[in-house]
Design brief:
The chain contains 10 helices and 5 strands, in the order ααααααααβαββαββ. It is α+β, with helices and mostly antiparallel strands. Among the domains are: 103 residues, no CATH class; 121 residues, Histidine kinase-like ATPase, C-terminal domain (Heat Shock Protein 90, 2-Layer Sandwich), CATH 3.30.565.10. Helix 9 links the parallel strand 1 and strand 2.
Length: 366
């Protein structure tokens, strides 16, 4: 347990005052006064430790103020000051202590004299230097640790940026190219065919390809953006876009989406994505089967339910990563809601999204 600075100062003053009182009891009022002077000088040991050392010298000459001298030398050595000042102070304390012992009432052996004087000067200086060195090492280690953390964060950021740029290149070179070819082929079919059904299908395919290319463009800009100009996001879908989404699904859909367009943008986007993902899954796994889309607004929550009947035809062999429902659940969790999807008793499939009305605020959920 480390003592506070005030507690240390109180203990030091107590020790030095006790030494001065003992000197006074020995009928040495001048030495006692000099001891009190040295004790008072210790109050300056943090700001001007050299002055504190100087104030101990008169007491040392009279064989007292030893505790104050030890503390003052230690304080001086602990600071990053001039080496010459420290050496001069140590020599002065050593000499004053040696003189005080030589002229004192209790003569000591020469070796004991030198050893005692060294204890007053050299020992506290050595301890102070060691303490200052340790503090500098600790500070250097902390700085090195900070630099290491910054370098690691920078390395991670660089790696992420490289991955994003590589992903953007692959999406541009492969996905965008393939979708562009699909749009061109659909456009050519739309112009050349005389079959109304084929013409409508080609138009739908072309419109979907153009919308996909627009979303890919936005994604590529987001992936490539770094310290350049910020990306202006493309318009995000809302409840107003659900009818067009259903019309383009090429599925028999019955809709009862009784939701107001005053809902917050995040909730509207989540509802659109729920319907979009459910229709996509129904088109892949139960092509041609009827789909029911219902939406209700309760007192404290919004609920969207999309149910498709059992499959009437073989599933379409379309590739998928299986991340659509996972992303939908994550989107709902961000808004404080839930998504439950499971097969129905008759062999169909149902997805239910429930969002609390407290999520009806602007939240960054794309």
């Amino acid at each position: 347990m480390r003592l506070s600075s005030s507690a240390c100062t109180a203990l030091i003053l107590l020790a030095t005052s006790a030494e001065a009182a003992v000197t006074l009891l020995d009928s040495a009022p001048l030495a006692s006064a000099l001891s009190f002077l040295a004790a008072a000088g210790l109050l300056l040991r943090h700001r001007t430790p050299a002055i504190a050392v100087i104030l101990t010298l008169p007491g040392l000459l009279f064989g007292c103020a030893t505790v104050a001298a030890v503390v003052a030398v230690y304080a001086l050595a602990s600071r990053r000051g001039s080496t010459a000042v420290l050496v001069t102070a140590v020599f002065g304390v050593f000499a004053a202590g040696l003189i005080g012992q030589l002229t004192g009432p209790y003569p000591l052996h020469p070796v004991a004299l030198v050893t005692t004087a060294a204890m007053f000067a050299i020992a506290p200086a050595a301890v102070g230097i060691l303490g200052a060195t340790r503090r500098r090492l600790v500070q250097s280690l902390a700085e090195l640790r900070t630099v290491h953390e910054e370098q690691r964060a920078q390395t991670a950021a660089t790696a992420v940026r490289s991955e994003r740029e590589a992903l953007a290149r692959e999406m541009h070179d492969v996905v965008s190219h393939q979708v562009s070819l699909m749009a061109v082929q659909a456009g050519a079919l739309q112009v050349s065919t005389r079959d109304p059904a084929a013409h409508a299908g080609a138009r739908t395919i072309r419109e979907l390809c153009v919308a996909t290319l627009e979303e890919l463009r936005t994604m590529l800009l987001v992936l490539r953006v770094g310290e350049r100009a910020p990306v202006v996001p493309a318009p995000q879908p809302s409840l107003a876009d659900v009818p067009a989404l259903i019309a383009a699904s090429d599925l028999p859909v019955s809709v009862d989406l009784d939701l107001p367009d005053t809902l917050g943008i995040p909730v509207q986007r989540a509802v659109f994505r729920a319907v979009q993902e459910s229709l996509t899954n129904a088109r892949k796994h139960a092509p041609g089967s009827p789909v029911t889309v219902t939406g209700t607004l309760g007192e404290d929550a919004v609920e969207v339910r999309v149910t498709n009947a059992p499959a009437r035809a073989p599933s379409l062999a379309l590739p998928g990563a299986g991340l659509g429902l996972i992303g939908l659940r994550e989107r709902a969790q961000i808004l404080g809601g839930t998504v439950v999807s499971a097969p129905t008793r008759d062999g169909g499939y149902e997805t239910v999204m429930r969002l609390p009305l407290r999520a009806d605020t602007e939240t960054h959920v794309g």
